[in-house]
Amino acid sequence: MKITEVRLGMLRVPLKTPFKTALRTVDTVEDIVVSIHTDTGNVGYGEAPATAVITGDTHGSIIEVIRRLIGPRLIGMEVADLNAILQLIHGCAERNTSAKAAVEIAIYDLWAQLYGAPLYRMLGGGDPAITTDLTISVDYIDKMVADSLSAVERGFESLKIKVGKEINVDLERVKAIYAAVEGRALLRLDANQGWTAKQAVYAIRTLEDAGVQLELVEQPVKARDIAGLKFVTERVHTPIMADESVFGPSEVIELLRQQAADIINIKLMKTGGISNAIRVADIAALYDVECMIGCMIETSISVAAAVHLAVAKSNIIRKVDLDGPSLCAFDPVDGGVDFNESEISISDAPGLGIREIRGLEPLAP
Q1: What is the pLDDT of residues 146-190, one digit of tens each?
Q2: What is the rounded distance in angstroms from the CA atom of residue 299 to the CA atom of residue 121?
Q3: Where is 29: in which H helix or E strand?
């Protein structure tokens, strides 16, 4: 199976409701889709969102890195030469993790197709069914409570509450949601770097003293503030999870060496794809630190790859935050992983199992 062509497209999918965090507001998925074609007729798919405030990637940078630096070098390569292809992808440019992730996902899709197996089996196997939480965006308290109750009624047993804008209002938001869903759903807080270390300790301790039991608090301080993250982790009972503070293997080693967080959040768009995500999970396993698998605002193309990884690494990836497809107004993908509210399941189709992507707008070469 030899690579013959790399194509790019734009995929736009409206969200059911605007996605609001301390960093941004999004109402439509607008992602770059890469399709890698072969001389056997097989096609592999990958996807990357523009998340400039997190990874630094924009649509323009994603397109240019794939079009100018990665794509031309892939032509003629054998899909079976996986390690050589991965080395090429990661050696073509510094950073640009989302662009690399999109191409890696498509390559892994083809690699599993080559051997006629779903990707999760090629990565180690596992139970092809997992459950995800659902994100509750920052909003008025009554709206967040109503959204939380609706999610519980739809079967979600874990809710990720976005906070980090106004700390005292955040506390009231969380208390109100906890009172509404107590005993029916676990709460995870995502501060999106919105607090200082001292604010985070104050907020978490206040909630703990009020009897609010949280499963975790995600990235309460700025991404570069490892000392602040450690400060918070050491002073609260609630588990603290690092997200933007950890992109790849070298960062996770340093963070775990300092014992600066209790949980690591893996996202393919941060790690640059599946290969480094596997390394991060394996490093965390050495330290006996559990991981969560998460996503950006993505559709079921790239999130499918994260699902396959989560299944294969379920020994250490024990928490799942892959609600991107559930936030979309519709699923543009035929085949692949089945996203049914909180329940996610993988078919036996080879690779990612994607048959067609509806509404894909080709981008000129």
Answers
A1: 999 999 999 999 999 999 888 999 999 999 999 999 999 999 999
A2: 22
A3: strand 25-38
3-class SS at 147? helix
Could you tell me which residues come within 8 angstroms of residue 293 by beta carbon, excluding any fewer than 6 positions away? 265, 266, 267, 306, 309, 310, 317, 319, 320, 321, 322
**Sheet arrangement for strand 25-38:** 43-49, 25-38, 3-20, 361-362
Residue of 20, 230, 267, 319 marked active site: 267
Per-residue model confidence as pLDDT tens digits over 133-150: 999 999 999 999 999 999
CA distances from 111 to 83, 85, 150 (A): 11, 11, 40
- Whole-angstrom Cα distance, residue 18 to residue 115? 40
- Residue 173 exposed, middle or buried by CB count within 10 Å (0-12, 13-18, 19+): buried
User: Which member of 162, 270, 313, 319 is catalytic?
Assistant: 162
Coil, strand or helix: which one is 146? Answer: helix
Residue 152, C-beta contacts closer than 8 angstroms, at least 6 positions apart: 159, 181, 184, 185
For the question of residue 267 being annotated catalytic, the response is yes
